[in-house]
# Entry
Amino acid sequence: MIYSIYEAKAKFSELIRRVRQGSTVIVSHRGKPVAEIRPIKSADIGLGERIEQLERRGVLRRPNDPEAPLEAVARRPGALQRFLDERDENEA
# Structure
């Protein structure tokens, strides 16, 4: 199913209903596909498989010691922290 941005905006609830039923919806801009709305499948997988996915994407790295806690590879402040930092810079 392909919808233009205008159609997708006008029928968003319908698109979400279709996605919840398992369909994938393509959104196009000027006739070219630009986005895909699909069901999230990661909710059905176990913790071990999710950790492996994050490792493959480079988001997570297992420590050499199996007893050590997992650590994120990239440490980037969240949106709130970036906002607060920028606000503090502008006040100074």
User: Anything to note?
Assistant: The helical segments are 5-10, 12-20, 47-57, 79-91.
